[in-house]
Each structure stands twice: as structure tokens, then as C-alpha cells.
Write a structure and sequence with these properties.
Layout (H helix, E strand, L loop, with lengths): L1 E6 L3 E8 L2 E2 L3 E4 L5 H8 L4 E6 L3 H14 L2 E4 L5 E2 L2 E2 L10 H13 L4 E7 L2 E7 L5 E8 L1 H9 L21 H30 L8 E6 L3 H9 L6 E3 L3 H6 L4
Helix pairs in contact: 1-2, 4-5
The site of adenosine-5'-diphosphate has 12 residues, from helix 4.
């Protein structure tokens, strides 16, 4: 059995791979993880494949567990080119591997479309992939909760708890103002990514609007997709295991 692990800045997500089928994605908060828990997760695993955007600490714990269980450890890295997809970064090593894997996963699930990939975690990232498999680059914004917390931590009279919302509206309490704005700002990022992509394709005489697909993933991905859908009637999907569709190509 293979174990795929994605270490994000807030949570570790993991999934078991039996032949070619991904199981259900599970998660643990980073501060809950210790050697004992990892040893249990790796019990009976022959190959463990890791994507991490963290410093070495958690990776070392995983590496210890792999040695103790006799499992082969594979660490995914962002590459200049994988499966014909060309990374847009000047220095691909600088781009978070979770983003690269989400791009590979998206292309695998939705080949030959203009893709806008939104990963809504601690950060919200947007990555753009053209229908001819070129990564144009992307954007990094603080995640929805990170935006929310940035103001509650810095303003004496802004008291609020982070919340999911059901729809966009104007706030009449401090808490509503901060939460609504955090989601609205992130939705604005996605709208502008779409506009910027359309402009790029028009200028470069490439295939345009009818073949776009927006793909959402990450802890806030489903909610963002639902909110975005209220205003935009285009093709949207939420794929919680998107990074793992990329990661499984490494093992
Ligand atoms: N059940 C949940 N547990 C933790 N965070 C959640 C949960 N549901 C939604 N979230 C949101 O998802 C974010 C973490 O998403 P995730 O994709 O795991 O991030 P990362 O990859 O950066 O660790 C949190 O900032 C939080 O706002
Ligand atoms: C942008 C990120 C912080 C997103 O991390 P996450 O929100 O998934 O924890 C991560 O992909 C990262 O550390 N990237 C390195 C910088 C870059 O991609 O340019
Ligand atoms: K992530």
C-alpha cells in the first residue's frame, strides 16, 4: 500500500493509494502530529510520497517513520517540465510544490482546457494553465482566514471570529464586516484572474472564453466555489484531492 502526504502550513492531508484508486482524504492539524501518530499512519505502507511546503521539521518525522517501517520515501519537487506541462516560474524550485501538483492533477483530470486553479488554504493561490499546457504563472494572496486574522490581530477595536458565510452581503456588525470582506476579497481575486487570463488569450490570439474551467481545492475551496457560483455561471468544480492526483504521478 502507498501513502500520499501533503504538508500545508495549517494541516497535513493524507490519503492511501491502493493500485490506482485514491481513498478518502483525511487531515490532521500540524500541531497535533507527532512521531507516534505518523508511525501508526505508516504501518504496512511500502511507499510514502510527500509534498511539503514546510521547513524540514515535519518532513523529518515522516522520514523517521518511513525508516522504522521499511518504507521507501519519495519527496515531490516542482520541476521545469512534467508530462509536457511547462512551469511558468523563472526558477521553478521557488514555486510551492503543492501548486505544481495541483496543476498536474488538474491537467490530468481536465486535459486541453484553459484552467484556473484555486487552492484556498493558509494562502489562496491561483495558477493559470493554458489549453496547450503552459503554466502562465499565478498569484498568492493570504488565505481567507489569514486575511480575516490579519486585521483582528492589528486593530484594537476589530473583534471577530472567522466564519464561513452563506452568501455575500454587507455587514452590520464588526464580525460580519470582517468576514464578508475576507471572502469578497478572495472572490475578487478569482474574478480578476479570469479577466486577466481572457485578456492574455485575446492578445495572443489563443482559444478563448468557451473552454475555461475553474477548479477549486483546499480547506476553503468548496465554500469559495459555492459563493463564486452565485455571480458566475461558468464551469466550476471542487476537487478536494487535487494535489494527490498530481502527487500520485510521482510514485
Ligand atoms: N475542518 C477544517 N479544519 C481546519 N481548517 C478548515 C476546516 N474547514 C475549512 N478550513 C479552512 O481551511 C484552511 C486550511 O486549508 P488547507 O487547505 O488545509 O490549508 P494548508 O494546505 O495551508 O494547510 C484554514 O485556514 C481554514 O480557514
Ligand atoms: C503559497 C504557499 C504558501 C501556499 O501554501 P498553503 O496555503 O497551501 O499552506 C506555498 O505554496 C508556498 O510556500 N510557496 C512558495 C512560494 C511560491 O509558490 O512562490
Ligand atoms: K495546500
Amino acid at each position: 500500500m502507498k501513502l500520499l502526504i501533503d504538508c500545508g502550513n495549517s494541516r497535513m492531508k493524507y490519503v492511501y493509494l491502493n493500485t490506482d484508486t485514491l481513498g478518502k482524504v483525511e487531515s490532521l492539524d500540524n500541531d497535533q502530529i507527532d512521531q507516534k501518530i505518523l508511525n501508526q499512519l505508516l504501518n504496512g505502507v511500502s511507499i510514502v510520497c510527500v509534498s511539503s511546503v514546510l521547513d524540514e521539521q515535519l518532513f523529518e518525522l515522516i522520514s523517521n517513520s518511513a525508516s522504522q517501517n521499511g518504507a521507501t520515501l519519495i519527496q515531490a519537487k516542482t520541476q521545469v517540465q512534467t508530462n509536457g506541462i511547462i512551469c511558468g516560474y523563472k526558477n521553478p524550485q521557488q514555486m510551492g510544490v503543492d501548486r505544481w501538483l495541483a496543476i498536474l492533477g488538474a491537467q490530468h483530470l481536465m486535459p486541453n482546457l484553459n484552467l484556473i486553479i484555486v487552492d484556498a488554504g493558509t494562502a489562496t493561490t491561483v495558477d493559470i494553465l493554458t489549453s496547450n499546457q503552459r503554466h502562465l504563472g499565478g498569484w498568492i494572496l493570504p488565505g481567507v482566514e489569514t486575511i480575516h486574522n490579519s486585521i483582528t490581530e492589528r486593530a484594537a477595536n476589530v473583534h471577530s471570529e472567522f466564519k464561513m458565510i452563506d452568501q455575500l452581503s454587507f455587514g452590520v456588525t464588526t464580525q460580519e464586516n470582517v468576514n464578508q470582506a475576507s471572502w469578497a476579497a478572495t472572490l475578487g481575486l478569482i474574478s480578476m484572474a479570469k479577466e486577466t487570463f481572457v485578456n492574455y488569450l485575446d492578445k495572443n490570439n489563443e482559444k478563448t472564453s468557451d473552454d475555461f474551467q475553474l477548479i477549486f481545492t483546499g480547506g476553503n475551496g468548496k465554500k469559495l466555489m459555492q459563493l463564486y457560483r452565485e455571480f458566475n455561471h461558468e464551469e466550476l468544480i471542487y476537487v478536494p484531492e487535487l494535489v494527490f492526483h498530481g502527487l500520485k504521478q510521482y510514485c
